[in-house]
Q: What sequence folds into this?
């Protein structure tokens, strides 16, 4: 029996590739997804399909509605910005930022990890082709790991947790190339912040723009169905 | 208008006293409670009564069921230990420990804080008369605060969050004395890990033992109704 790993799985390119990388490293996979009140309810369906394709041991989906907390275009009526220029994407943390989202997700990942005695928690954060969110940066991840090992019974008893971020320094194109090598079926994944009611991607939000650019630069056909 | 504070409120002695202390310090109060799958469903009712007594601005109750995660006697069928000796209570982290619970609660507190622009997050942790949980210790709180200021937009923009722990070095008796001075009605609070179906406290779990001892040492009559 291999070592267990928790993998946070949103159903997008990055987390799906992270799941495949963890499998390639020989881990038993415990995937974790959240219904957190996001506009894109297709995300969790995509996560289920990917969890099935990659053959995880267990896929836990938790309901934690963040809408009452507010503060983000992803969880409230606030509109999702479209067609932001690269310059803007580099400089301004957009309203699609969800306060403390990765902190919350990693905290649940930590709880499940401790409960099932998994000591590796994978998260597909990336600080190259990303939306500028502070909780995707290496310094945040390092601080979370330190905190986690003071927060938990296992941590204080000398069985530390590791937060694994295999994509942290990869471009979106490199991520797509690596995932393709590992057999990830990207047609199952969902990246759009604001899909149409039929599930088609908008093609204009930051997440769609980065996704399109990634496939182009990787020289791999984009299987996504866009609204326009 | 005063400064806003988030106060994590479980409905026990410590969080209720913390709420009164934050009010005494002049904060506008935003209390936050969780239905996390705890056996003691009276907790949240107690939190509502206290939030009303202390007159908070808003009381947000979130549903985040931790039962599927497992690992604790508070969220699963595992029995709650009774009549543990002081020696045992000092040495062994009990099965009532909920993996990463305070990390999860503080993460939601951080999210709400950022959303409403509150920069003080109060939590009633105490490392004197407590159950030995690692996530009640000052070193954990400090590490969480550091992480929080790397995780958030406000943190990286130079508007840091503070995790406030006014009870950290107080005995249970001192906490009860301070809360009594501040007018906390402890008859509304609930501490028991495993109350009877009618809501009466068991009187034998760690939490009841510490509560009883606290009232005795404070020389204040204990208003709690125990089963036996």
A:
């Amino acid at each position: 029996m291999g070592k267990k790993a928790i993998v946070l799985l949103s159903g997008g390119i990055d987390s799906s590739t992270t799941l495949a990388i963890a499998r390639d490293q020989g881990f038993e996979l415990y995937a974790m997804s959240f219904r957190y009140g996001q506009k894109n309810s297709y995300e969790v369906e995509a996560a289920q399909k990917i969890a099935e394709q990659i053959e995880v041991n267990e896929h836990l989906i938790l309901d934690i509605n963040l809408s009452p907390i507010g503060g983000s275009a992803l969880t409230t009526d606030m509109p999702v910005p479209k067609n932001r220029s690269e310059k803007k994407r580099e400089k301004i943390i957009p309203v699609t930022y969800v306060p403390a989202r990765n902190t919350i997700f990693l905290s649940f990942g930590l709880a499940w990890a401790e409960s099932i005695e998994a000591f590796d928690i994978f998260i597909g954060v990336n600080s190259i082709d990303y939306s500028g969110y502070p909780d995707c940066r290496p310094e945040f991840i390092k601080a979370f790991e330190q905190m986690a090992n003071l927060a938990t019974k296992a941590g204080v008893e000398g069985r530390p947790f590791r937060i694994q971020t295999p994509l942290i320094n990869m471009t979106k194109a490199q991520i797509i190339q690596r995932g393709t090598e590992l057999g990830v079926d990207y047609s199952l994944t969902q990246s759009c912040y604001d899909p149409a009611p039929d599930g088609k991607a908008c093609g204009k939000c930051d997440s769609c723009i980065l996704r399109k650019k990634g496939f182009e630069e990787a020289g791999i056909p984009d299987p996504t169905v866009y609204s326009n």
Remarks:
- The mean pLDDT of chain B is 94.
- The domain at 4-218 of chain B is CATH 3.40.50.620 (Rossmann fold).
- The first helix of chain B runs from residue 13 to 24.
- Chain B touches chain A at residues 60, 62-66, 68-72, 93, 97-104, 107-108, 110-116, 134-135, 137, 139-140, 143-144, 146-148, 150-153, 155-156 (CB under 8 Å).
